[in-house]
Hints:
78% of the residues lie in helices and 0% in strands.
Amino acid sequence: MDSSLENRPVGLRDRQKQERGQRIVKAAEKLFARRGYAEVAMEDVAARAGLAVGTIYNYFPSKSALLLAIVGRETESLLARGRKILEDPPRDPVAGVSAFTGIFLDDFTRDDRRLWRELFGAAIAEPATVGRRLFDGDAQLVLQLSSLLERYRRDGTLAPDLEPLPAATVLYGVCFTWLTAYLVNDAISAEMVRNEIRRGIAIAMRGLLRDADAISTITGGAEL
């Protein structure tokens, strides 16, 4: 028997399983964002996904597992965009850092802020699982940003004594502070957050750039 014929059904089943898992995660994401994590039952997820409850449990044994899958999906989306910047970064380090931090803002403001509120709330309620997964995702993003800064340091556009990881942590902290403010305060708009992150990054980058005049590329020459 042709071995390729034996393998084809397995490949099809794998694709169907993956697609079904993605459908379940998307259904849970929409429900958690709309109604809140605590108010959604696995039966609700099954109904929205158009699947039997037993099928849902075959993929995800608990709501917590579903939430972890959502965190993983969001993290991988951010990391994939970060990798694209690392593959071909802008020549200007300020523009590169600005593009990188824009990844966080775009993801946080893409949908209703309710989903991220639910994720943060679950991270506090379940620090050993959801909280750890969010922290691990943040750590990977900081490492990506650190790699970007190291590249600019090697190119000679950033200060030669730059410590990439601590610098990346500071820059990420600027983003995290304002994105947290956005999540907890409805009066703060996405545009306000974008402007404040730009200002904060500009101030932080002044200590990293070899040529301080290059900061005008992000501030437009405005006085900070």
